[in-house]
Structure formats: structure tokens, C-alpha cells
Amino acid sequence: MIDRSIVLACTRLVVAAVIATTLIACSERQSASAPVATEAAEQAEAEGVNLEEALKESDQLKGPIESVANNPQWVTLPGGGQVQYEVFGESGPFVFLGSQIYLTAPMPGSAAVYRGYIAGLSDRYRVIVADWPKGMGKSTATGVPALTADQAAAEILAIADAAGADQFAWWGYSFGGAVGLQLAARTDRLSALVVGGYPPMWQPSSDMLLAVHQAKDQMEAAKLNGTPGYLLNRASIQFYTSVGETNQLDLLDNITAPRLVYHDVDDTVEIGGMVHDLSKRTRAGADTLKARGWEIQWMDTGLAHYGMNDYQKNLDAFAPFLDKVLLEK
User: Fold this and answer.
1) CB 3.0-4.6 Å disulfide test: which of 10, 175, 177, 204 passes with 26?
2) Is 82 exposed, middle or buried (CB count within 10 Å of its CB: 0-12, 13-18, 19+)?
3) Given the DSSP bridges, would you call strands 268-271 and 274-277 parallel, antiparallel or unpaired?
4) pLDDT digit string, tens, across residues 317-327
């Protein structure tokens, strides 16, 4: 079992834009200090914490690179760059576990969490996992083209093509949920959509854009330009900028795949000195969502926005929906 104290310690040092990026989660192991430096820099500004001391403190959370890959494959994405992916499971409908799950684990212990998700689904589904967005794990971090919502959708569909998935369900948590909403509105290839830890209604896009801009400034101040964490944060700026003027009701109306959103009952996260209550946003929009065909589920992990780390409670929240929709159980 994963050590929750390590998970919580690690996530407290995550980039300030933890929702907006991809829970960069304490490290790109190739550049372990990048997201740590971002959070440390913000703490230095808000709490008087010495940046160098905060970076040294993060050394205790460094660990070996872990991978859940057994037989990884590579795909070249539209516009350039390559991403590593793998399909787990021998038969059944395809389920794409998007961000926050990767082949290459970004922090100590997270590979055990990923394996929990994969094991919980691959007995009856073919589960796609990738080092995406570009810059994660062993994927190549190319700066062009910009990761707009259109580009993100094109890249995900390219990975699905390489995996042989004409139709697939998308699961995404936090940033991966935000991406899933845009993907589902742009393609008819989704057999189901699962959005975890991100409200489809009253989306916090402007808050996230501010957070990733703050993270960018802090990384540049720490001279971390060009690191994987910096490139990923830049991609998040590009994504949230591209969806900034989205009419959320129109977006919801363009999603036709069977759809579920789920949260921890206390899905809160502190960014930039403010506590953001994501579960409250979905509760406020529940009637609108249900009227548009959404199902809503809740779980109680005791981990707030970091509840994704309790894979069993997450599976209990969303797997029955997939089984009903994809397997007619």
C-alpha cells in the first residue's frame, strides 16, 4: 500500500497550479526540483520561507524513477513529439486513463496507485495509459505546437489510433478532467466520459490560468526555464488560454457520450493562498448537469483534492458507471 504520509507531504510541495497542470507531483524525475521550486517560491513570498532551504527539504521526497510499463510502444503526435503508451488487458472495450495517470510515475509511491487503477479495470477492459501530455515521463517535450484544446484532442486521438481504439472511454482527474470535457465536445469517438475532481459546471478556468501564470513566474525566477516541469506548466497556460472564452453551457450541450462527474465530498485545494472548493461548484450546478444527462457520484477519501491517491475509493465511485455503460451490467 502507498504511504499516505509521503503522498500528502509530496502533494503539499506540488506546483501552485496543481489543478491546472497535471499534479506534476513533486517532480519530473529528470528535473525533480522544478515543481518543488515553484511551490517553494510561492511559500517564500507568502510565508517568508527561504527558497534554497525549501528546495533542500524536498530532497527527502526524491526517489527512483518508477514505471508501470511492461511493453511500451511509441507514437508520433500531430505537430511533432513522441509519447510512450501501453495497452493493459487482453479484451473488452477501451478505457483511456488520462492525466493524472502515467506510465512513468512522477513521484515515489505513485506507481503503486497507477497499478491499482490498472488492475481494477484491466480484467475486463483494455486500458490505455500514456506519458501524456508531452513532457511527462519519457515523452519528448516539444514546445510546438501549443497545447490548445484542439491540439490536446488531436494528440489524444492519435494515441488512441495507435492503440487500435476507434471508440474509447476517457477518464481524467483534475486537469485530465478539464481536458476530457474539451475532448468529448470535439469527437464522437468517446464511448463514455468520466471527469474526476473537476467541475463541468462553474469551471475554475480563470483561477487556473492565474495559477499557472504565477507558477511560470516563479519557475523563471528560480531559473528553471526549459525543464520538463516548466514546459508542462507552459502547456497548461496554452490550454487554459484556449478555453478561456468557452461558453460552458454550449460545451455541455456538445457532449453526447454517457457522462459522469465525481468528487471527494471535500474536494478542496489551496492555491495562491485561496481555498478552492471544487465539490461546491458541482453541487451548485447539479440540477443543470443532471438536466443535461450527467451522473454525479461522491467519495470520502479524507484526502480532499488529492483523493485520487485512494484508487479503490475512486474505482468504487466510477467503475460501476463504466460497467453499466460499456458492459451493460
Assistant:
1) 10
2) middle
3) antiparallel
4) 999 999 999 99
